[in-house]
Design brief:
The protein is an alpha/beta fold. Helices cover about 40% and strands about 10% of the residues. It binds 2-phosphoglyceric acid. Pathway: Carbohydrate degradation; glycolysis; pyruvate from D-glyceraldehyde 3-phosphate: step 3/5.
């Protein structure tokens, strides 16, 4: 008889921010949740509570949209007491000098195709920020302890994977030794980076992967961190606070689920989860 899954990982993108609604490149800009984002974060907690999730530890970035989402979701679950660890390695991808610009205005100048290449290609970097720019992370005291060589001026998804995965391997995976249930609240592109790695998606396949705000996805593993079933949306038959069903919003996820289904029996997820590439 197969053992029931006993390790749980929930990936959650922060709730909506005003710059998402306005369609502005955000990256490392520290923008807060919009009213809808606030509702989405509370609703995420409600859905996780409904599914009986009890977290042992949570991980997030050093950006307030993710931190606040952890707070609101855990508050809704009455689990605010668990340890929450923050790392710049879970920050959104750094969008270079595009940060703050409206995507449609950039598209008018350089064309839709170029904007899409910057947003979704695997290894294309956005135009870099200069170190003299006030938006450069070296001017922000929260990054003061970093080696200057680690401070990004603009990252591709590939760069984001390279700085996020050490945190996965060195901090999150070891936490599973004493934790049965882990929550990661991060950002669209950091989560794309993690999902690419966990599911072994190709560089081409990840281009079509979108991660919606405020939708917790639950992964179940056995004690050796082998994936036991397809990831599921928490309380997935519910409607979101703003009235649309998860299934209608996230077609990309379901196409990825079918990709995963076809690979599920042959891939060693333990290998993906625990070994560096
Ligand atoms: O601007 C950003 O930081 C990200 C996420 O909001 O945008 P995109 O989805 O275009 O990568």
């Amino acid at each position: 008889m197969t053992e029931p899954p006993n390790k749980t990982l929930v990936l959650l993108r922060h709730g909506q921010i005003t710059w998402n609604a306005e369609n502005r490149f955000t990256g490392w800009t520290d923008v807060g949740l919009s009213e809808l984002g606030h509702v989405e974060a509370v609703e995420a907690g409600r859905r996780l509570l409904h599914d009986g999730l009890q977290f042992d530890i949570a991980f997030t970035s050093v950006l307030k949209r993710a931190i606040k989402t952890v707070w609101l979701a855990l508050e809704e679950m009455d689990q605010m007491w668990i340890p929450v660890h923050r790392s710049w390695r879970l920050n959104e991808r750094h969008y270079g000098s595009l940060q703050g610009q409206f995507k449609h205005e950039v598209a008018k100048k350089v064309g839709e195709e170029q904007v899409q290449r910057w947003r979704r290609s695997f290894d294309v970097r956005p135009p870099a920020l200069s170190e003299g720019d006030k938006r450069f992370p070296g001017n922000d005291r929260r990054y003061a302890s970093l080696d200057p060589a680690q401070l990004p001026c603009g990252e591709s998804l590939k760069d984001t994977i390279e700085r996020a995965l050490p945190y996965w391997h060195e901090t999150i995976v070891p936490a599973f030794a004493s934790a049965d249930s882990i929550l990661i609240v991060a950002h669209g592109n950091t989560l794309r980076a993690l999902i690419k790695y966990l599911k072994g998606l190709t560089d081409e396949k990840v281009v079509g992967l979108e991660v919606p705000t405020g939708e917790p996805v639950v992964y179940r593993f056995d004690h050796e961190l082998r994936l036991q079933q397809l990831p599921t949306f928490a309380h997935s038959m519910s409607r979101c606070a703003h009235g649309c069903s998860p299934r209608s919003r996230f077609r990309d996820f379901f196409s990825l689920a079918s990709h995963l289904r076809s690979h599920c029996s042959s891939i060693s997820f333990q290998q993906r989860l625990t070994k560096k590439r």
